[in-house]
Specification:
The chain starts with 10 loop residues before the first strand and ends in an 18-residue tail after the last helix. The chain has a 7-stranded mixed beta sheet with strand order 3-9-8-7-6-4-5, sandwiched between helices. 34% of the residues lie in helices and 16% in strands. The protein is globular and about 70 Å long. By secondary structure, the chain is of the alpha/beta class. It has helices spanning 39-51, 70-79, 91-107, 124-145, 163-171, 219-233, 250-253, 321-357, 388-397, 427-445, and strands spanning 11-13, 26-28, 117-121, 154-158, 175-179, 201-207, 239-242, 266-272, 284-288, 300-304, 307-311, 362-364, 373-378, 404-406, 415-420. Helix 8 crosses helix 10. The structure holds pyridoxal-5'-phosphate. Pyridoxal-5'-phosphate binds next to helix 4.
Amino acid sequence: MAMQGDDGGDKLSINPVFVRPGEATSYPKDRFPQEESLPSTAYQVVHDRAMLDGNARLNLATFVGTWMDDEAVRLYTEAFDKNMVDKDEYPATAEIESQCATMIADLWHAPDPDATIGTSTIGSSEAAMLGGLAMKRRWRHARTAAGKPVDKPNLVLSSAVQVCWEKFCNYFDVEPRFVPISHEHKVLDGFELEKYIDENTIGVVAIMGVTYTGMYEPVKKIAAKLDEIERDTGLDIPIHVDGASGGFIAPFCQPELEWDFRVDRVVSINTSGHKYGLVYPGLGWVVWRDKTVLPDDLVFYVSYLGGDMPTLALNFSRPGAQVLLQYYLFLRLGADGYQRVQQSCLDVAQHLASGIAAMAPFELWNDGSDIPVFAWYLKDGASKNWTLYDLADRLRLRGWLVPAYPMPDDLSGLTVQRIVVRNGLSRDLADQLLEEITSQVAFLDSLDGPMPRDGKTTPQFTH
Ligand SMILES: *Cc1c(COP(=O)(O)O)cnc(C)c1O
């Protein structure tokens, strides 16, 4: 990482096959090269280095899309150069962006999709920050109008939130109030919520698809608890739903579940176009219920076809191609296509979960029926000589990335292992993985002493 720069003297040697006459045979590793290279030489070096990145198909750790069809790739190459912020130069892309936001608002049952406001972002992280900022600003306006202090905003969220919410609180000076999870309350479900909420609470985050485990938080139940709190205290607390994954699963596969704008307290929702929206990395969405919940003083106006267009974003320039890819998929798949794709992921996830549940040492945390993601842990005393970290290492030797990590508070003593099923993990591949897990467990069980430790600390959860 650049922040920790090493000695800087290292050289990156170039395969002699690709060194052209007169060219250097190496590059400085992390210093700016002085001389030019031929494009083909530079290409080969970057190509070869990127090859070490591993096989995305076997990466069951990530939620992010790694495959699109040929027509999408063609569109992508036609649109590489589009800059989302240049609404005036790319008015068609800008119009498609706002149409996509409205389509998503409709998908999420906004009472009047045409009255919503939304934007694409670089991912759910930026989208979540914008949702959080709107709640913070709205709280501040109300407090200021009431002549009350505005120096101690807080946000109530599960201890299992994705790191983007910790960043939001840190970067924008909001006190995070983490509600711990437990075996009894596996997700934020409203239990003891009143203990965390006061007049300085800007909102509550509900997660549709907890990153650690894939479970949904019961948005309607949380809202009902907030109704009770309002009756008792007069505090009217809004909900932002982090639907990074579930935003593109629930509408298609659990249409009866009320988690979105059907719940009155939900003021805004974010999702990742590049997760189950099925687009290549670099796309998120955030939509507000209506224009009244997004304070106008957060909105900037850029010129657009001789007029003004509202924008709200942390970045200025950012790629526009992903927005076109999202629109392409909306047209190509429609609701039926999304339903088929997501349901097949759910089927594979539940097939894998039942296979793992059938193995003696394991206990499921959840079964992959919310988003196609599930986690499991070791039964008490199930293994004397190995841990889930050892199993993750053994699977990695065979190319499979199946991460193990500690749960957040109050369960930080519990290690789980998680599988994220994405489009492309077929039932056949899933069966091969189950066989691999079975044989690695047999190997680990056959050890007559503990697996050696390399003294490194155990991994932390990072995504
Ligand atoms: C992945 C994820 C995020 C962050 O999304 P990016 O699109 O990677 O920025 C936020 N919240 C949840 C629940 C997630 O799973």
